[in-house]
Amino acid sequence: MYRSDARRSSMVSNQVFFQMVRIAKENILLIFTVAGVVAGVVTGITLRDPDVKWSKRHLSYLRFPGDVFVQMLKMLILPLIMSSIM
């Protein structure tokens, strides 16, 4: 009787695991979005430490990825507007 109970519980745990994997695959965009927001908030809180004095060089290292991202968004907006007008 013990073996059948152990098999049954392992089958149930396998089913639960595969169901969780299926749900995670269906909601992968949501999971990555929430993870990105959490990572951004943690990074922002960490970088705003009042005891740390940032040099201009360090600030330029932090500013560069943001500037690249904004430029990519600008390059994306104009074609979208033009294609929706025409």
TrEMBL record:
Give the UniProt keywords, A-Z: Glycoprotein, Membrane, Symport, Transmembrane, Transmembrane helix, Transport
Q: Which InterPro entries match?
A: DAACS, Na-dicarboxylate_symporter, Na-dicarboxylate_symporter_CS, Na:dicarbo_symporter_sf
- Membrane topology field: Multi-pass membrane protein
Q: Which Gene3D superfamilies match?
A: Sodium:dicarboxylate symporter
Q: What top-level branch of life does the organism fall under?
A: Eukaryota
Q: Give this protein's Gene Ontology molecular function annotations.
A: glutamate:sodium symporter activity; L-glutamate transmembrane transporter activity; neutral L-amino acid transmembrane transporter activity
Main location group = membrane
Q: Where in the cell is it found?
A: Membrane
Q: Which GO terms describe its cellular component?
A: plasma membrane
Listed transmembrane segments: 28-48, 68-85
Concerning its family, UniProt says: Belongs to the dicarboxylate/amino acid:cation symporter (DAACS) (TC 2.A.23) family.
Q: Tell me the protein's name.
A: Amino acid transporter
Tell me what organism the protein belongs to: Angiostrongylus cantonensis (Rat lungworm)
